[in-house]
């Protein structure tokens, strides 16, 4: 998937990032300064009206094939719920330099941070992998910490990906439609580490959202920032039902495999879980 022209303007993209941040805050997936958002823009954009200050930054790894391309990214320590009030003070605009070794960070005079989010390396690795594979001109990545999904990942049996998906996808007919590949599961790995980055890239090749065990989730979309946020909300809602069931002594059976397969047949859903 790619976005067709006329492309959204920078101001519109900033508003959508703010709205996604607010929604994730409403579902309690971004306590304090937890969570971060970034967006890859594959068309030409002029950042300097909103972000007039340029400063050089090093990239975590060279991105020669993305020279001249742009990323919007939340600032380190910023709160996703506050982006909406003033996107330019909470977000930066990163334009990759010729050769792809370094980049320019464009910011507002009102900026409230010094560096992009510390998770920017994972975001960039996922963007790079997805853009390289699909050639998309737009890609959004969100990290958040939704409590029900994260709680389930603290229970050993839910860290088994097939077990997790059979238990999450049984609560609402829409879940399999929105997450036809289910949810990926990555074991606990040190936040910000190269290991977490590599495992996330691999899992997001086959899924639209991945759980980082005992930490949170990362989701992606090549259509919009809000779709990436929706994916977190769908998975978190399923985890909430699962939690209700556990909490109440597991009285519910949920949708049967047969019922889920009937939904997939009726709506032509190319699911890969059952
Ligand atoms: Zn985190």
Question: How would you sum up this structure, described in words?
Answer:
This protein is an alpha+beta fold. Helix content is 39%, strand content 18%. The protein has ten helices and nine strands. The chain has a nine-stranded mixed β-sheet, sandwiched between helices. Helix 1 packs parallel to helix 9 (225-247). The two termini are 25 Å apart. Bound molecules: zinc ion. Zinc ion binds at residues 34, 143, 145, 191, 215-216.
Top keywords for this entry?
single chain; 274 residues; 9-stranded mixed β-sheet; alpha+beta
Shape: globular
Main-sheet strand order equals 2-5-4-3-1-6-9-8-7
Helix content: 25-40%
The largest sheet, given as strand count, sense and whether it forms a barrel, is: 9 strands, mixed
Briefly summarize what is shown:
This protein has 274 residues and is of the alpha+beta class. It is built from ten helices and nine strands.
Produce the secondary structure layout.
Blueprint: H1 10-26, E1 36-41, E2 53-58, E3 70-74, H2 80-83, H3 87-90, E4 91-96, E5 102-107, H4 120-134, E6 138-144, H5 147-152, H6 161-168, H7 173-178, E7 184-186, H8 194-206, E8 209-212, E9 216-221, H9 225-247, H10 257-267
Helix pairs in contact: 1-9, 4-8
This protein binds zinc ion.
């Amino acid at each position: 998937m790619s976005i067709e022209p006329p492309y959204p303007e920078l101001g519109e993209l900033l508003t959508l990032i703010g709205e996604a941040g607010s929604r994730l805050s409403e579902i309690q997936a971004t306590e304090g300064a937890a969570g971060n958002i970034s967006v890859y823009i594959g068309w030409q954009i002029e950042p300097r009206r909103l972000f007039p200050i340029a400063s050089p930054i090093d990239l975590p790894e060279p991105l020669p094939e993305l020279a001249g391309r742009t990323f919007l990214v939340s600032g380190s320590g910023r709160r996703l719920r506050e982006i909406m009030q003033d996107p330019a003070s909470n977000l930066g605009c990163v334009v990759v330099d010729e050769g792809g070794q370094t980049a320019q960070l464009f910011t507002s005079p009102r900026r409230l941070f010094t560096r992009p989010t510390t998770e920017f390396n994972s975001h960039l690795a996922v963007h790079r992998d997805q853009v390289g594979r699909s050639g998309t001109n737009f890609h959004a990545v969100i990290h958040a910490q939704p409590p029900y999904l994260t709680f389930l990942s603290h229970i050993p049996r839910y860290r088994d990906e097939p077990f997790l998906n059979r238990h999450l996808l049984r609560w609402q007919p829409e879940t399999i439609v929105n997450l036809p590949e289910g949810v990926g599961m990555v074991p606990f790995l040190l936040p910000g580490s190269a290991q977490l980055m590599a495992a996330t890239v691999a899992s997001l090749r086959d899924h639209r959202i991945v759980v980082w065990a005992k930490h949170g989730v990362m989701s992606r979309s090549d259509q919009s920032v809000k779709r990436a946020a929706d994916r977190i909300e769908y998975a978190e809602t399923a985890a909430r039902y699962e939690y209700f069931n556990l909490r109440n002594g597991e009285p519910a059976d949920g949708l049967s495999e047969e019922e889920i397969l009937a939904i997939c047949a009726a709506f032509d859903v190319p699911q890969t879980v059952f």
